[in-house]
Write a structure and sequence with these properties.
By secondary structure, the protein is of the alpha/beta class. It has helices at 12-23, 41-44, 55-64, 89-110, 136-140, 147-161, 190-201, 226-237, 256-266, 280-283, 295-299, 309-321; strands at 4-7, 29-33, 51-54, 74-77, 113-117, 169-173, 175-177, 204-207, 220-221, 223-225, 244-248, 254-255, 273-276. α1 (12-23) packs across α8 (226-237) and α9 crosses α12 (309-321).
Length: 330
């Protein structure tokens, strides 16, 4: 069985990845994270792994001795500050860019497969396309809309400049939702937020559109269920010929109204939607349309069908949100 390091392992996608590894009988896993004061520790409770380490201590130990924990076969670097509203640019550069550079260098030095989370936020407003095949000057022309996206974009550029992009895998996750995201506060998916609103008030609030070409609630996103996201991630990690950047999404764009309607349906309720003004701080940085082209992923041999949006929402709402369960509680 492989020996694996997962940074951000108590977080949303990280803990979901460990759950998927456990489903395959893999338990020789070092979890690195910073638990701090939120409730993400609860994601770890049902999971099986060898040890937990503070994320900073892991990097320090590996820099002193690359095989401090034994030789890793795979390193999944999913830890980052993912708040698109984070204003501390120095923190984002250290945490999202600097840490990734250091861990990648250690992985390449020891022969570990390095898989890291980039982000669809690197594409900005999409005017330069959302193509995971971009290279060179075309990649440089992307214009992220926030510092989080820029911190991720910088490493994508660094990997290409250093000629290492083909030897590692960068994952551009789109709008991932599902179990184990409770701790993400304002960065939780609409499904999680709307569930709470509907249970409490019987209705859900969606942002109005501030563009004439989109009606209220008809802004579109590519929504990806976390169970599909980790299947894609593991496929790429275990496909030696895969290298570079990959879009991970459903491959289709759905409106916020479609998503909200699926949540009401999962609860057995009629839709009741209220449109509210978008905060001014978001208006100039808001993506009105995202849709992943996953043809590059498919070309690596990924054959699995994705979970239809109504089915994934129903699974999440009925099997996790309503009973307040985590992945692994099954």
């Amino acid at each position: 069985m492989p020996k694996i390091l997962v940074t951000g392992g108590a977080g949303f996608i990280g803990s979901s990845l460990i759950w998927a590894l456990n489903q395959r009988g893999i338990e020789d896993i070092i979890v690195a994270d910073k638990l701090q004061s939120d409730e993400k520790w609860r994601n770890l409770v049902p999971l099986k792994f060898t040890d937990y380490e503070d994320a900073d201590d892991v990097l320090d130990a590996l820099e002193d001795d690359p095989e401090h924990f034994g030789k890793f076969d795979q390193i999944f670097h999913l830890g980052a500050c993912s708040a698109t509203t984070e204003q501390d640019s120095d923190y984002l550069m250290r945490n999202n860019y600097g840490y990734t550079k250091s861990l990648c260098a250690l992985a390449l030095e020891t022969g570990a497969r390095f898989v890291y989370a980039s982000s669809a936020a690197t594409y900005g407003d999409g005017s330069q396309g959302m193509d995971d095949r971009l290279e060179g000057e075309a990649l440089h022309k992307l214009r992220p809309l926030n510092m989080y996206g820029y911190s991720k974009h910088l490493f994508d550029l660094f990997a290409q400049r250093q000629g290492i992009a083909k030897d590692i895998v960068g994952l551009k996750y789109y709008n991932v939702f599902g179990p184990n995201e409770d701790h993400k506060s304002e960065m939780r998916s609409l499904v999680h937020k709307a569930y709470g609103q509907i249970v409490e008030t019987g209705k859900v609030q969606l942002f109005k559109s501030h563009r004439e070409d989109y009606n209220h609630g008809e802004q579109k996103r590519d929504f990806l269920y976390v169970k599909d996201a980790v299947e894609m991630t593991l496929h790429l990690a275990n496909t030696p010929s895969a290298g570079g950047l990959y879009n991970l999404g459903s491959g289709e764009a759905n409106t916020w109204i479609t998503l909200a309607t699926a949540i009401f349906s999962a609860l057995g309720k009629e839709p009741n939607i209220e449109f509210i003004d978008m905060p001014e701080v978001l208006q100039g940085k808001y993506q009105y349309y995202t849709c992943a082209d996953i043809s590059k992923l498919r070309e690596t041999g990924y054959k699995k069908q994705l979970t239809p949006l109504p089915d994934s929402v129903a699974d999440y709402v009925q099997n996790y949100l309503t009973p307040d369960a985590r992945l692994g509680d099954e």
